[in-house]
Design brief:
Helix content is about 30%, strand content about 25%. With about 450 residues, it is α/β, with parallel strands linked by helices. Strands 17, 18, 19, 20 and 21 form a 5-stranded mixed beta sheet that branches. It has a 4-stranded mixed beta sheet with strand order 22-23-1-24. Helix 1 packs parallel to helix 2, helix 7 packs parallel to helix 9 and helix 7 runs parallel beside helix 11. It is globular, with a radius of gyration of 22 Å.
């Protein structure tokens, strides 16, 4: 089992490039299956999540060449080899379920995909996906298969456009519906749709491909039936989560780092919170420079939400940042009910955080009175100390790395399979900024890291 060994206490200084967005390129690869034409993607991150998605698309019939050094993927699916996604992809990530939307209009065969996976941060039901696809004419059922669950879907009578109102602006359900609607007869209207930058990136790609698709200001997306597709070249947007993570690491260590590729438009809400705590940043044409400019002030209230709100994926490293700010701050998580699974390890490292089941925010959320620890108070500043810890999920992983960068002792972090899913060459990038960090082999008998080896 690999681990990170980090000796903190050093300011991060220098320049680093943020890679393409995990949550964009994985969906774009699935969208390429709509067409038999060649698609070329630039700014592709070299991460495990892309590896899994590439394998998944190849299984279906995509011919893919990935120049990992250049960050370029060429893919073409001239014909489908199969519409069955094997059970070995069960639980690997959230991508297999999107195969239903992408393939319904391209095959009359049954589409079989395994149950969904990803980080264990709370329930991620797909009932919104199923209801939307069924309204378009799909038939979907859940069956047990080889002792595991799988979804069987088909549209033997074809898909027809419909007006679909999502109960919640789910990113995955929006993406699945868009993909299916591209080949559905007539026009499809999605109301209360997600409008995250990654969704817009998907829409821009589909428009290049030949799909007529509109986005209205009231979270309404309209898609018209498409018969002819084009070859496409597309540059993946920069990962706004990675950009923010690197920026927070720079500020918390009292350093200064220019994050090349960080996009201002996608980080407005995050940057406002940096203003509120007195952190420094400077927006340039090709990125954003983040820096410490004096004592950080707490007294902050953050409520996570769908875009354009404060991302749920920003709050974990932001909590670590707030451990270095003067005063008490409140985080109210409204997107996932188990997002604070990382808090216990932070407390072991010296953070003063306390969890609550109540909604500590401006509004009651869907987790009110359901006994989930979905609010948190963090008090600072507090010194952090090195520990042996295991990563429970992807975004918690960077929060632990950031905490370790603040601790003067050496920390050992296991569970790197989670971190590898979304952060390209994190050791090399942090080391280039002056961090004392290495990737090493762990003692397999370490009790503190046992959970990581079992994951």
């Amino acid at each position: 089992m690999d681990v990170l060994r980090i000796k903190g206490g050093l300011p991060l200084e220098g320049r680093v490039k943020a890679a393409g967005a995990k949550n964009s390129i994985t969906k774009l690869l699935v969208a390429s299956l709509l067409s038999e034409k060649k698609c070329i993607f630039y700014n592709v991150p070299r991460i495990a999540e892309v590896e899994v998605t590439v394998d998944l698309c190849r299984e279906i019939g995509a011919e893919i060449h990935w120049d990992k050094e250049a960050g370029i993927i060429e893919t073409q699916t001239k014909e489908l080899r199969t519409s069955y996604v094997p059970q070995r992809f069960s639980g690997s990530n959230r991508i297999p379920i999107l195969m239903i939307g992408a393939l319904l209009g391209r095959t009359q065969e049954d589409i079989i995909v395994p149950t969904v996976g990803g980080c264990k941060i709370g329930q991620r039901p797909i009932d919104f996906h199923i209801a939307a696809l069924e309204k378009l004419g799909a038939v979907i059922e859940y069956r047990m298969m080889k002792k595991e669950g799988a979804y069987f879907a088909h549209a033997h009578n074809g898909l027809s456009g419909a007006i679909i109102h999502l109960p919640f602006p789910s990113v995955g359900a929006t993406e699945n519906t868009i993909l299916a609607a591209a080949r559905a007869k007539g026009t499809t209207v999605i109301k209360n749709a997600a409008t995250e930058p990654e969704i817009i990136d998907l829409i821009l790609f589909l428009q290049k491909m030949g799909v007529i698709i509109f986005v209205d200001v009231d979270r309404t997306i309209r898609i018209q039936e498409t018969h002819h597709f084009n070859e496409v070249e597309h540059t993946v947007i920069t990962d706004r989560i990675v950009s923010a993570s690197l920026g927070m690491a720079a500020i918390s260590t009292k350093g200064r780092v220019f994050v090349e590729g960080a996009q201002h438009l996608h980080m407005i809400t995050f940057l406002n919170k940096l203003h509120e705590i007195g952190a420094g940043f400077e927006v340039r044409d090709n990125g954003i420079e983040f820096f410490y400019k004096g004592p950080l002030k707490g007294g902050l209230h953050i409520e996570t939400d769908v875009h354009p709100g404060f991302m749920t994926d920003w709050q974990q490293p932001f909590v670590v940042l707030l451990t270095q700010a003067y005063g008490n701050s409140v985080i109210h998580e409204t997107v996932y009910e188990n997002r604070f699974g990382y808090a216990h390890a932070l407390k072991l490292m010296g953070a003063d955080v306390e969890l609550f089941t109540q909604c500590l925010g401006g509004k009651e959320c869907r987790f009110a009175s359901r006994n989930f620890h979905h609010s948190l108070i963090v008090r600072g500043p507090t010194p952090l100390k090195g520990r042996e810890i295991a990563i429970p999920d992807l975004r918690a992983g960077f929060a632990y790395v950031m905490a370790a960068l603040l601790a003067p002792e050496t920390s050992t972090i296991g569970g790197l399979q989670f971190l590898d899913r979304g952060y390209e060459n994190i050791v090399g990038k942090l080391a280039s900024l002056g961090a004392d960090i290495v990737r090493d082999r762990a003692d397999a008998h370490s009790p503190s890291l046992a959970i990581a080896s079992a994951s």
